[in-house]
Amino acid sequence: MPSQVYRRPAVEEMTGLSRSSIYDMMARGEFPKPVKIGRRAVAWREGDIVAWLNARQPAAA
């Protein structure tokens, strides 16, 4: 089953990050890289975003 992909506005909403924060964190290797979905369009894989969000969650005590 193919994974869903999200464009930047949806990723911003899901993560609470701004556009500049997303690209800054990507440059530092702290945020998943997008995949090309068109000549001038990118999107992020759902699994990559979910994994990133889960990694940021503090461990339950």
Helices and strands, with pairings:
Elements (H helix, E strand, L loop, with lengths): L4 E2 L1 H8 L3 H9 L7 E2 L5 E4 H11 L5
Antiparallel strand pairs: 1-3, 2-3
Q: What distance separates the N and C termini?
A: 34 Å
Strand-residue proportion? 5-15%
Count the helices. How many? 3
Give the % helix. Answer: 40-55%
Query: Ranges with pLDDT <50 over ≥5 residues?
Result: none
Largest sheet: 3 strands, antiparallel
Structural commentary:
This protein has 61 residues and is an alpha+beta fold. The protein has one domain. Helices cover 46% and strands 13% of the residues. It is built from three helices and three strands. The protein has a three-stranded antiparallel β-sheet with strand order 1-3-2. It is globular.
Brief write-up:
The chain is of the alpha+beta class. It has helices at 8-15, 19-27, 46-56; strands spanning 5-6, 35-36, 42-45.
What keywords describe this structure?
globular, alpha+beta, 46% helix, 13% strand, three-stranded antiparallel sheet, 61 residues, 3 helices
